[in-house]
Amino acid sequence: MQSPAVKTYIGIGSNLADPKQQVIDVLPHLNQISQTRLLEHSSLYQSAAVSEIEQEDYINAVACLETQLTPEQLLLELQAIEYAFYRQRSDELKWAPRTMDLDIILYGNLRQRDSHLSIPHDQLQNRLFVLQPLQEIAGDLYLPGLGSLSYMIQHAPSLRIEKLA
Q1: 56 has which bridge partners?
Q2: Are 20 and 56 in contact (CB under 8 A)?
Q3: Which of 25, 89, 103, 114 is catalytic?
Q4: C-alpha distance across the termini of the chain, in Å
Q5: What is the DSSP secondary structure assignment for residue 34, as one 8-state letter?
Q6: Which of 53, 109, 133, 139 has the largest count of CB atoms under 10 Å?
Q7: Percent of the chain as helix, strand, coil, to the nearest 5
């Protein structure tokens, strides 16, 4: 029996190797994930990096997918796409520059916390570069335990962010 489709939101970010093009180029890959369909995506946003490591600005967006995959299956698919975009992972440098970063931000109404996956994303309320594009395509969602997107945007740490044309 096939699982019902779940609406999920994916954060997209890049700050290496022509990041604007990287974010644009990843969108068709999201639509090619098995049992998954890309419904829409936000505009692109440029923001300062959130890191102690000196690095270039990020280009960010949020995509809305409809998927029948479990969160764990979807995470593996997203990691495979990151790898195809030459993502390098380092335990020592958690917030290092990257060619592609794909994060499950929301997965339906699921709340999950384990060693591999936190849904909603555990830093959502601190990430204006995710909250603004998410609100652009999802409206003013209310997230139990966190509040509305408007509330989270008003209370998120200040960050230089610009919506790109």
Answers
A1: none
A2: no
A3: 103
A4: 44
A5: T
A6: 133
A7: 30, 30, 45
Structure tokens at 162: 């610009």
Domain 6-163 carries which CATH code? 3.30.70.560
**Sheet strands (E) in the chain:** 6-14, 36-41, 45-47, 58-67, 101-107, 112-113, 118-119, 142-143, 147-148, 161-163
What is the per-residue pLDDT for 93? 58
For the question of residue 87 being annotated catalytic, the response is: yes
- Domain range summary for the chain, segments of one domain joined by +: 6-163
Active site residue 103: yes
| Residue 1: pLDDT over 60 | no
pLDDT class of 125 with cuts at 50, 70, 90: very high
Q: Looking at the predicted structure, is the pLDDT value of residue 50 above 90?
A: no
- The catalytically annotated residue of 37, 98, 127, 160 is 98
Q: Say whether 18 is catalytic.
A: no
Per-residue pLDDT, averaged over 15-44, amounts to 96
To the query of whether residue 140 is one of the catalytic residues in this protein, the response is: no
CA 31 to chain centre: 15
